[in-house]
Task: structure prediction
Amino acid sequence: MVKKVKGNAESPWSQSVRESAHLIWLAGLGAFAKVSSEGGKLFETLVKEGEKVEERTRGATAGALEVAKEQTEETRGRMVETWDKVEQIFEDRLTRVIGQLGVPGRDDLRDLTQRIDALQAHLDELSRAQANPRS
Result:
């Protein structure tokens, strides 16, 4: 239930309230119009600023990325060299220990294989000769 306010609607006080409300309404409409007309310009300005920031950031990031790649390649190269040295040291020591134990090396095994093949060929020849005594 709404109570009616007693008083004159044409009093100076109500007139002042109406004028204030109207001014507030006009200010709101003005703000809306200003944002509508200049909002596009503001948006474009913000986009341009964003592009500048992005460009600076990309430049800094690209530089840092390139430095990291170079350092990674240098480190990788040193690792490969070090690994090759360790591998060679291991092979040399293993060869020396195997030699001290009297275990034949690769060349020795190749020579032995060739000698066995030659002996096998000779045995095959002898077997054929015994099978055919008339030859």
Q: What stands out?
A: The mean pLDDT is 82. The helical segments are 12-101, 106-131. The radius of gyration is 50 Å. Residues 17-103 form one domain.
